[in-house]
Amino acid sequence: MSAEGSSTSVPIARLPRTSRTRAALTGTLVYVAIALVTLGLVLAAPLTAYSLNLFMQASTYAVAVLGLTVVLGYTGQINLAQAAFFGLGAYSVALGTTTLNLSFWLALPLGVAIAALAGAVLGLTSLRLGGHYLAMVTISFQMIVTLVLTNWIAVTHGPDGVPGIARPTFFGLSFADGTRYLGLCIAVLFAVGYLVWYLGRTRLGRAMQAVRDNELAAGVVGVDTYRTKVTAFTISALLGGLGGGLFAGGFTYISPDQFSFSESVVFLTMALLGGARSPFGTAFGTGLLILLPEWLRFLKLVYLAVYGGAVILIMVFMPAGIWGFVNAFWRKVRPVEPLTLGPVAPLSSPRRPARSDEKVILEVKALSKHFGGLKAVDGVDLTIRQNTVHALIGPNGSGKSTLLNVLSGIYRPTKGRINLEAHDVSRMKPYQRAACGLGRTFQNIRLFGAMSVLDNVLVGAERPGNVLEGGSAAYVRQALAALDFVGLAHRRHESVGSLSYGHQRQVEIARALAGNPRLLLLDEPGAGLNHLEKDALIALLKRLKGHGLTIFIIDHDMNLVGQVADHITVLNFGRRIADGRPGDVLRNPDVVAAYLGKVIDHEAS
Ligand code: ADP
Ligand code: MG
Q1: What percentage of the chain reaches a pLDDT higher than 90?
Q2: CA-CA distance, 549 to 547, in Å (whole number)?
Q3: According to the per-residue pLDDT averaged within each range, which of 45-54, 213-222, 495-504 is highest?
Q4: Residue 494 shares a structural domain with residue 564
Q5: Ligand with minimal distance to 376 CA
Q6: pLDDT digits (tens, 9 = 90+) for 217-227
Q7: Same domain, 404 and 511
Q8: For residue 499, is it within any domain?
Q9: Is residue 283 part of a domain?
Q10: Is the confidence at residue 296, as pLDDT, over 50?
Q11: What is the pLDDT of residues 336-374, one digit of tens each?
């Protein structure tokens, strides 16, 4: 007997994956070719000492600015201390190779580790609190690092800086020559650029972008938002340290003023100017901001004004940076070919008729949620049985959404217990409840606005606890199956923001479905839909019901509830006033008075 109802994913017969794999392979080869040609040009070209320094600065800065792609571009967290991490890397290499007489190859990883560790500690202590807090903490950290570098003279040599930094040798190959060292920096830059680009396409990268686009929804979908942010911050600091370490070797002399707060602002400007969300954008922005002043130097005295003006104009007219602007333009002019998908296996779940003796999946006891003196949810008991559609109805403001938010962990209960199958989830974080198989949608749609339709649903498929065999391809298949279920597979590569409201609701449902939830919570999925969209929603709910999915649904629409519900619970002023089979509940005089009466009043007025 397979009464547990665990769903298995069925492989999809044919997927247009080969063309995408081939495109990715071609892209990688082109990238490697560009890297090799660049390296060849740098090594062959007779560079003046001046332009050598310029390129050295650009390439080492770009490595650090790529860190901002991870923390700001992917994860949406501000970091105003990148110059401090850059400085930690630079001083590790400087003092390591001079005072401590270490090899460059030892001092550099040491600097990277110190910067990463500082980043991790800073992230761990400050990322629990959101908003402006992180900006303040990073600025403070930046100030402290500058103070230490300047004033701890016995160790750092203070404002005089550190001269005579050694460049490395590698198995007899000396990098003492400036051109060769520049080649090393550029090779590292290309490698880091690729890794950062690749990160954006991994599960972790998608989790970061989900946090950026909607932190609340990311948690509910199963992303450990705190850990994701700390990881991003640590990677960012690590790349800051790497860039700084290379910088120190490049210039062989460093001083504290090179790693001040104003430099952190420059790093941030480079990322924003080029387009923080793409590694190509950040690298481009870095190069532009370093080379632009040189190109404009012929303007003599007015060059600073022109330079400043150009930067401001780009920022104002291209809020997503130059790369973001070009990308958006490309999307507009590119002919969109309709996407077809081979036969997709349906989302499979045991097909079983609902019975009243089904196993209990969610048990809520005396649950309360108070907001100050307001008892939004007041001592509610609730029992949801497996393979049933359980509706929660009640007038506006009766506490339905609050109850759902307590169930999914957005609010902590004031009192009471919530058991999901064997787990007491009352004190768990949203992502931990997602890991136990709780999925949900929101009354006000909460999608990951800048991600594609497919990536939105993929984040859902990748929830912890949804273990699929077959590696990452299996999660893509699962996401496509969920999209196909709601009828939107052909729009998978579009930005989710370009879809209509009704379609966005369906994507949100698909995102929850893709995670194979044990229990799906839907908060007013019919809100804001027109008649046609509502009919489609009812058909979708009936199909879900047919698949035996356990659903807890909030809705106002009696027609909708009447068509799908096996069981109804009614709330009024945060209290449960009725609970039972639809026929009985809807005839209950209290319900008619409290709820149905009001709706009729409402519609009459
Ligand atoms: P429903 O979904 O049934 O329309 P809600 O659960 O959204 O109702 O709201 C129930 C009550 O709790 C309302 O009076 C609402 O104003 C209040 N409420 C909801 N969320 C909050 C909050 N975060 N802070 C304070 N009061 C809230
Ligand atoms: Mg509500």
Answers
A1: 66
A2: 6
A3: 213-222
A4: no
A5: 1
A6: 999 999 999 99
A7: no
A8: yes
A9: no
A10: yes
A11: 555 666 555 556 554 455 455 678 999 999 999 999 999
Whether residues 404 and 543 share a domain: the answer is yes
Ramachandran bin of 470, using left for φ above 0, alpha for ψ from -120 to 50, beta for the remaining angles: left
Taking residue 92's Cβ as centre, other Cβ atoms within 10 Å add up to: 26
Ligand 1 site, residue 401, Cβ cutoff 6 A: yes
- The residue behind tokens 């590694």 is 279
Question: Which of the listed residues 454, 483, 516 is the one where a domain comes to its end?
Answer: 516
Domain, as residue range, for 477: 446-516
3-state secondary structure of 424: strand
CA of 198 to the centre of ligand 1 (A): 42
Q: Whose CA is nearest to atom 1 of ligand 1?
A: 397
Residues 503 and 572 grouped into a single domain: no
Is the pLDDT at 403 greater than 60, yes or no? Answer: yes
Ligand 2 mean position, distance from CA 398 (Å): 8
Q: Is the pLDDT of residue 284 over 70?
A: yes
Does residue 401 share a domain with residue 534?
A: yes
537 C-alpha vs ligand 1 centroid, how far in Å?
A: 25
DSSP state of 45: S
Predicted confidence (pLDDT) per residue in 143-156, tens digit:
999 999 999 999 99
Q: Report the residue among 367, 368, 371, 555 best suited for mutation to probe ligand 1: largest number of ligand atoms under 8 A from its CB.
A: 371
Nearest CA to ligand 1 atom 27: 371
At 42 the pLDDT is: 87
> Per residue in 573-588, pLDDT tens?
999 998 999 988 888 8
Q: Is 246 in contact with 43 (CB distance < 8 Å)?
A: no
Q: Does the residue 478 lie in any domain?
A: yes
Contact 278, 69 (CB under 8 A): yes
Domain count, the chain: 3
| Ligand 1 center from residue 411 Cα (angstroms) | 11
Residue 225: both structure tokens together: 């938002």
**Atom 14 (ligand 1) nearest CA:** 397
CB of 400 shorter than 6 A to ligand 1: yes
Question: Rounded mean pLDDT of the chain?
Answer: 88
Residue 553 CA to residue 520 CA, distance in Å, equals 8
Question: Is 294 part of a structural domain of the chain?
Answer: no
Residue 552 to residue 532: CA distance in whole angstroms: 23
The CATH code of the domain that includes 376 is: 3.40.50.300
pLDDT of residue 597: 59
Which of 370, 401, 575, 599 should be mutated for ligand 1, with most atoms under 8 A from CB? 401
